[in-house]
Amino acid sequence: MKAIQFTQHGAYENLKLIELPAPDLLQGQLLVKVNFAAINPVDNTIRAGLIPQAQRLPMILGNEAAGIVVKGNNQFPDGTRVIISAFTPAGGIRGIASDGAWQSHLALYPEELIKTPANLSDQEAASVFVGFFSAQACLNKADFAPSKTVLSLAVGGAVGNAGVQLAKAHGASLVITTAGSASKAKAAELAGFENVINLENESINEGVMRITGGKGVDIVIDSVGGNLTGNAIKALARNGIIVNIGYSAGAQFTANITDFVWKGLQMRGQSLSGWFTAEQQQYVWNQLLPLLANGSVKPTVAKVFDAADAPEAQRYLIEEKPFGKVLIKF
pLDDT for 268-293, tens place per residue? Predict the structure, then answer.
C-alpha cells in the first residue's frame, strides 16, 4: 500500500510517498481503502517539529479522510462508503499521537467510521470532520440557541466556513464572518456567504458594529488566534462568549479586561483530543449528519492533489491560503 511519511522535521519536501505492507487486521477491525485525505494546518505544524507531543519519527500525518470498506462486517458491509473519524479508539486525534490517514489502506474499528451521506462525494466526505465536528463542538461550548448572533472567523478556513453554515442551519438570527483579503471576500460572496468582513478594509470590531448597528454579537468562534482574537473580543455583545479552538495566527493576543468586567464576557477553550467520549462524539454526529444528509451544510473543496504531490499540496495550503479544503488523492 502507499503512504506519505516523513523521517525528519523540516521542509515540505521531507514528505515522501512510500510503499508499506498492507495493514494486518486485529480482532474486530475492518479494512478501508482511503480515496481522499485532507490536509490541515496542524499537519504543517507537526512536520515542522513544533508539537512535542506528536508521535516519534518516522510519522504519517493526516486527521481526516474518506473511502470505502473493502473487508467489512454486518454493520459496514464491503462497499460501504465511509468518513474516517479523526478520533482514535483511545480518544486521541489521528495523525498527532499516532500515525494518521495519509495512507491508501487503514485497519479501523467500526467506532472509527461514519457512513457517508449519499449526497456527499468522497471529496466532500473527506472534508467533513475537522471543520464541521469542530465548529459544532464550538457552538455547543458557547451554549448556542436559535436567534443568537454568531461571528465565525475566517470563512476560507475549515472551521470558520463550517461555523457559518452550521450557525445559519441551526437558526442563528445573524451570522457574520471574515476574510483576510479582497479575493477571499469575493470568493465567499460568490459562494453565497453573506455579511463577510474584508479585513483589508476594516477591523473585525468595525465590521461587526457596522452590521449589527453597534450591538455586537452573542458568540464568536475563533479558529485563528493572534491579534484577531483581541479584536473579536471587542465585537462581543453584553454576556457574549468567545470560543477559541485554534491559533494558527499566533498564541498571544491583547484584550481589555474592562470588556470582560463591564460586559460580562466569557472566553472558553475548545479542543478535540482527549475531550470526547464515544457517547459525546455520537451526540455531535447526531447534530451534524441530518444537516449533511439534507444538504443544509456542505464542505467546500479548494483543490485536489495526487498523493505523490503531497509537498506541494501542503505548501499550497499554508502559503496560498485557499478558500476551502485541500485534499490528497490515493
Answer: 999 988 789 999 999 999 999 999 99
Count, residues in the chain: 330
> pTM value?
0.94
Instruction: State the chain's mean pLDDT as an integer.
Output: 96
Strands 217-222 and 236-244, bridge-based pairing: parallel
* Percent share of the chain, pLDDT over 70: 100
